[in-house]
Amino acid sequence: MSDIKELKELLSVPHKIVITTHQRPDGDAMGSSLALYHYLKQNNHDTTVILPTEYPAFLGWMPGNASVVIYEKEPKKCALLVEESEIIFCADFNKLDRLDELGKIIEASPSVKVLIDHHLEPNDFATFSFWSTLACSTAELVFDFIIRMGDRKLLNKEIATCIYTGILTDTDRFRIPTTSPIVHRIAAELLELGINHTMIYEEVYETFTENRLRFFGFCIREKMQINKDLKTGIISLETEDLKRFYIQTGDTEGLVNYPLWIKGIRLSVLIIQRPDGVKLSFRSKGDFDVNELANKNFRGGGHRNAAGGKSMLSVAETREQLISILAPLKKQLNP
Ligand code: 5GP
Ligand code: MN
After folding, report:
1. CA–CA separation, 281 vs 262, rounded Å?
2. I want to staple 281 with a disulfide (CB 3.0 to 4.6 A). Which of 8, 165, 216, 270 is the partner?
3. How far is CA 117 from its chain centroid?
4. Residue 153 near residue 42 (C-beta atoms within 8 A)
5. 205, 234, 267 - which closes a domain
6. 46 near 15, Cβ under 8 Å?
7. In 2-65, where does DSSP find H-type helix?
8. DSSP assignment of 164-202, as one string?
């Protein structure tokens, strides 16, 4: 954790600020970025949120969404914003390659960089770093950051709504082990700020189209393999499966959790063919470390119980490779 004093001094006069996060942003990425946006705006900073790629439809209601600029749609505008910026906030990612091309532009920028993140093993690119893997979400760290800046009085309904969304989604609805008493206390304070937590839940989890729900049903019925020996469930999706159900960005969010609903299953993997290669999502229960699995074998990472990675093989080959990697780990999966 960096000393807050120096940054507080820097932020005491208005600056041109860019806030950015990882590609295919999730609830925590959007919640953290937009909470920072609503916070910094109050101190008269000229602030813009830049996303590497579009946000999913289930986050389309978030306060401040209309102001975000998306790199894949407006690369020149984004490059100019980075060029003109004095400070860049990097929220919810630990390595600039998680921003693809935009990451390279940010890496080359001389602006002061402020990292706020909870992923394991961050790269050393930030001037100031507010980083803890104990935090349930980056949104929790954004809350902490505002308090440490001495600005509790600036918390408002917009900031609270964004932070709550980050915590809700990254804890998988207050379920995962990092959901500490502190997280519940923060949630209580956010509720006291007047947020509508029922609305947030419904917007995030209960705005499926009929088609998307039927797609989930199809994935569970036709595309899920359960390996009882390895206590593992794998859902594999080819381009044709995605095309058949007109699947858009974010439509597969949450799908990886379903195999873990089966008693005894400790590891779940979603393998998807994307235009730029195969993407893997890992979720585990207990001590099985998917960050290590993704990092060692699939050029990825994340957290102990939730991580992602990539492969340049086909979906079927990736699945075979995964099973051959897991076979010697059978003992760890059967503690
Ligand atoms: P998801 O499976 O939802 O894409 O990601 C799960 C977690 O792993 C998230 O915290 C996400 O930021 C992280 N993650 C996903 N893909 C990658 C990757 O390719 N590299 C790294 N370092 N982290 C990833
Ligand atoms: Mn996060």
Report:
1. 18
2. 270
3. 10
4. no
5. 205
6. yes
7. 4-10, 27-42
8. HHHHHHHTTTTTSTT--HHHHHHHHHHHHTT--HHHHHH
Question: Residue 54: which domain range?
Answer: 4-205
pLDDT tens, residue by residue, 163-192 = 999 999 999 999 999 999 999 999 999 999
**pTM score:** 0.94
Number of domains in the chain: 2
Residue among 59, 119, 272, 297 whose CB has most ligand 1 atoms within 8 A, to mutate? 119
Bridge-based pairing state of the strands 46-51 and 16-20: parallel
- Select from 98, 117, 176 the residue to mutate for testing ligand 1; criterion: most ligand atoms less than 8 Å from CB: 98
Instruction: Give the domain CATH number at 76.
Output: 3.90.1640.10
Q: Is the CB of 99 under 6 A from ligand 1?
A: no
Q: Which residue among 162, 188, 205 closes a domain?
A: 205
Q: DSSP character for 55?
A: P
Question: What digits encode the pLDDT tens for the residues 115-159?
Answer: 999 998 878 999 999 999 999 999 999 999 999 999 999 999 999
For the CA of 171, the nearest ligand = 2
Q: Does the CB atom of residue 197 touch ligand 1 within 6 A?
A: no
| Residues 134, 225 share a domain | no
Residues 221 and 105 grouped into a single domain: no
Same domain, yes or no: 201 and 318: no
Say if residue 25 is in the same domain as residue 69. yes
